[in-house]
Structures are given as C-alpha cells and as structure tokens.
Amino acid sequence: MSKPIMAKATAVWLVDNTTLSFKQIADFCGMHELEVQGIADGDVAAGVKGFDPIANNQLSAEEIEKAQADPLHKLQLKHYAAAQGEEKRRGPRYTPLSKRQDRPNAILWLVKFHPELADSQIARLVGTTKPTIQSIRERTHWNISSMQPIDPVALGLCKQSELDAAVQVAAVKKAKEGAALSDDERRKLLSTEQSLGAGAEPRIPTAIEGLQSFTLGQDYHPQEREKEYDADSFFNLPDADDDEDDDDDASR
C-alpha cells in the first residue's frame, strides 16, 4: 500500500487529533505499532509538528470517522491524481557518498564481464554517467591503473535481480540483431539462477584440441598390422642349437 508523505508527522497528527488505534495509524503510515505508541508517550518524534492529512488531501474526514467507528477498518490513502507517478524519479540512481568511490570498480566489472550491456544500462545500475563509462571502456580514465573489477551487487550498488534483468534485456537485443555469440558470451547472458542450475559442460583440454577430428587412413587394418608387427620380431635372438654349435667351434 502507498504511504502518505511525511509519514511520521502524519502519525503525530493522527495521534493528537483522532481516536484511531495505534495499529490503524501504524498500518496507514507504514510504521511499527510500538513506534506509534512511543509517539503517544512522547518518547518518539519529539518536537515533530503534526501534518494534517485532511488539509493535504491524503485522507477524508469520512474515512477517519469510519475507522474510528470500526477498529478493524484500515485507512485508505486518498487518490491524488496530480501525484500519480511522482514516486518514479527520473535520472541516474542515487548513490550514497560512502559508496561513490566504488563505482569505477563496479563499472570496470560490468564492462569486463558483461560487455553486451549498453552504457545506459550500466548508468542505471550503478548511478553513473556515460562519459565515465566510456573512459573506462577505452581505458582512458585517470585512475584506471589502480582500479580492480568488483561485482556491483557485492558492493551494494544494485540488486542481483536488477543486474539479471539488464542482462536478459541485452540477450534479447543480441538475439534480434542476429549477432553470433561465443560460448563464454552466451554464459554471461544467463541469469544467476540459470547459471547455477546448468550442469558443467565437458571441455576438451587445450593440449589435445583438434584431435577430436583426427581419423585414420582408409588403408589401416588393425588385424593386418598385428600380423605384420609381431612382438617377437623386434628381438633377433639366436636359436638354442645355434648357440651350441658356436661353443663347439670355439673349443676346437
């Protein structure tokens, strides 16, 4: 359910001016029931001025009266057409100051392991600008020598679901363009769940690559080769009778 603007100040006003239960106010303002109870006791939101939801077109007086008469009734936020879609902010994602220094490392990771992502997708994922992405792609960034690729999900710059969704969009775009993908690129276009669920593919060692297409000549016959090359034929050992004749000649 959508929350009212200035939720805590709205809760202060509802506690001071209505007989609504703590649970009703907590559900409407997106707060915990104990937090609303703390507002009533004066332990929470001390000095916060109440924000009238009726005067600011968030609640109607009839809705409040209905909720006061029925403790099980949940307050419904009044539909305000002018604020429709206002929560969808345009522009790059906001990145906290503590994590902004990690953005170049995250961009380098995305450029290295997901080169199929467009600059606009990377900008939305980590909250950066296209010139910065381009400088890292071309390795002309002023700090490129000390950068290390780090997963933006591990850095907390984006969610894994958001990264998977961006990769899937890139996969669909690649398929429409008809570009040929290598095995490594195809694995990169898979989501995390698909990658973990896929079995390991047998790979041929690099030392014997090309031997899978090796074939023997048509004249090769294993049985004939065995007859032609007998194991005993490799050892030219004299017979026993010949050895005795040689000994007799020597004694004479």
TrEMBL record:
Compositionally biased residues, Basic and acidic residues: 221-230
InterPro entries: TrcR
Chain intervals with Acidic residues compositional bias: 239-252
Location of the region described as Disordered in the Swiss-Prot/TrEMBL record: 214-252
Name of this chain's protein: Cytoplasmic protein
Organism the protein comes from: Roseovarius azorensis
